[in-house]
Amino acid sequence: MKKFSLASALAILAIGFGFETEVAAQPKGWVVDCKTDRMTDVRSCLIAKAVWSEAARQYLMLAITDDRVGIVAKGTGSGARARIRVDGGTLFETSDCSRGMCSFDREKSIEIIKLIEDGRRALIEFAFQTGQVVGPEEIPINGYAEALAKPGSTSSK
Questions:
Q1: Distance CA 31, CA 13 (A)
Q2: Structural domain harbouring 97
Q3: Domain assignment of residue 149, yes or no
Q4: How far is CA 41 from CA 3, 31, 38, 106, 155, in A?
């Protein structure tokens, strides 16, 4: 069974942040991409939502694969840390970063995903090693379960 790795899934979306036009056209919607392995029929999805950071003049993206959560910011340099807080609850922080992406370990990700499924809003923040911080920005997260149940695009691997 081959699933998306968070790094490869986010790389697809983050290359040049090429989905900015979709986000601008649907600012309240989730972007969903699901693939079904033709040999095993296992479905694996990437679901993402972005928010505009006026102060940093760029998008900040929350991206979720089957069992990983990541935060992506378009910028120069590598990430140092990312933080998320769902509905004013527990603050989760990670320093597992590469380029403009930070991801949470599997255990924390599963906990965050459960909160997002029933949540209304999240605060997300991304810090570069240069000291530049994007956020915290509030992002509406309602509709996650519905978006995942009705993916916007599906294709075979």
A1: 10
A2: 6-156
A3: yes
A4: 11, 22, 5, 23, 11
Contact by Cβ (8 Å): 122, 139? yes
Q: What is the mean pLDDT of residues 44-55?
A: 83
pTM for the whole thing? Answer: 0.77
Distance CA 3, CA 110 (A): 16
What CATH code is carried by the domain that includes residue 35?
2.60.40
Residue 1: inside a domain, yes or no?
A: no
Dihedral over Cα of 65, 24, 151, 2: its sign:
negative
Of the two residues 73 and 14, the one the predictor is more confident about is 73
Residue 80 near residue 73 (C-beta atoms within 8 A): no
Tell which residue, 9, 11, 6, has the closest CA to residue 74: 11
Phi, psi for 141 (deg, rounded to 5): -115, 0
